[in-house]
Amino acid sequence: MPFDSTVQFRDLSIDRRTINGDLRSARNSTMLRLIGSPRGNYGSDCRHPTNSRILSLIRTESVGPFRVTGLIPAIAVLKTVFAEIERDKPAVAADVGTAGMLCCRKVRGSSTAISNHSWGTAIDLTFGGGVDARGDNRVQKGLLEVYEYFIRHGFYWGAAFRTEDAMHFEASEQLIRKWSDEGQFGGVSGPAASSVLDFGDRGPEVEELQSRLSLKLGLDLDVDGIFGGDTRAAVMEFQRMAGLKVDGVVGQHTSNALMA
Questions:
Q1: Are 19 and 156 in contact (CB under 8 A)?
Q2: Within 10 A of 88 (CB to CB), how many other CB atoms are there?
Q3: 259: Cα separation from own chain's centroid
Q4: Integer angstrom CA distances of residue 40 from 45, 52, 197, 204, 221
Q5: Residue 169 pLDDT level (bands cut at 50, 70, 90)
Q6: Cystine design at 171: which of 9, 32, 91, 121 (Cβ 3.0–4.6 Å)?
Q7: DSSP line for 39-103
Q8: How many CB atoms within 10 Å of residue 106?
Q9: Residue 202's pLDDT band (boundaries 50, 70, 90)?
C-alpha cells in the first residue's frame, strides 16, 4: 500500500516548529567556514560543484532504497537511517524515493541564502512517486513514518522551516560541527562561532533577530528567517546607533546590545 496520502499537522497535534528538538538547521556561515564554497556562483537552478577539494568529498552510492550523490559523511548517515527504516517498516521503505541530494543553488525564494543541497548534505524524499507540496503545512503520511529516524541521527527536518518543506532533510548544525571535529572535511577551516549570525544564514535565530531589529529601530522587516540584504542593512543601522563596529554581522557584542 503506498504511503502518499497527506495529513495536516494540526490534525495530529504536532508542533512542526519544535519537532526537531535542539537540532538547528546548518547555517551558511558554518558550512562556508568548515567545508568551503562548492562553487563560485549560485542561481535558482541546479549546478554542479566546481571546488575540486569539495568534489573529493563527494560520492555516488546506494543508501538502500536508491542511489544518491552527496557528501561522504552524509551518505554514511543515510545508509544507517534507511537500514533502520527497512528493518522496522519495510512497506514504507519500499515506497520511498528521492527528488535529489546534491544541487548547488540558492534557497527557493531567496536571493542570498545558499541551499544546503549545494554541499550534498540535504536530501528530498518522495513517497509513492509523489512530491510533498511545499508551504501548505500538510505532509505525506510516509514522511510522518520516517522523520524520527532522521532526527535521531542528527538530520534536521525541513517541516520546521518558516515555509514548511517537509520533503527536505539536512545534516543539522550540530552534525556538521561534529563531522568537522572528527576531521571529516580535511581540517580545512576554523571553528564556527555559535553566537554569530551572518549574511545568508536562516532559521528561527534569524527570525528572532529580525523581530528585535524591527522593535529597536521601528522598522517593519519581513520576519522570514532569512538573513538577506534588508536584514544586514538593519543590523548595520543598529550597530551604528549603538556605537558598535558596523560590519553587518551579529556577533556577541551586537547580540548583547539587541537583548538589552
A1: no
A2: 12
A3: 26
A4: 14, 12, 22, 27, 29
A5: very high
A6: 121
A7: SS---SS-B----HHHHTTEEEEE-SSSEEEEEHHHHHHHHHHHHHHHHH-HHHHHHEEEEES--
A8: 17
A9: confident
- Which region holds residue 111: left if phi is over 0, alpha if psi is between -120 and 50, else beta? alpha
pLDDT in the model for residue 193? 47
**Strand, coil or helix: what is 139?**
strand
DSSP 146-163: HHHHHHHTTEEEGGGSSS
| pLDDT of res. 97 | 96
Assess whether pLDDT exceeds 50 at residue 190: no
Residue type, 137: N
Arithmetic mean of pLDDT, 185-202: 69
Task: Assess contact for 70 and 98: CB atoms under 8 A.
Answer: no
Q: What mean pLDDT do residues 143-166 have?
A: 95
Between the alpha carbon of residue 236 and those of residues 166, 222, 239, the distances in Å are 34, 16, 5
The C-alpha atoms of residue 35 and residue 197 are separated, in whole angstroms, by: 17
- Predicted TM-score (pTM) of the model is 0.82
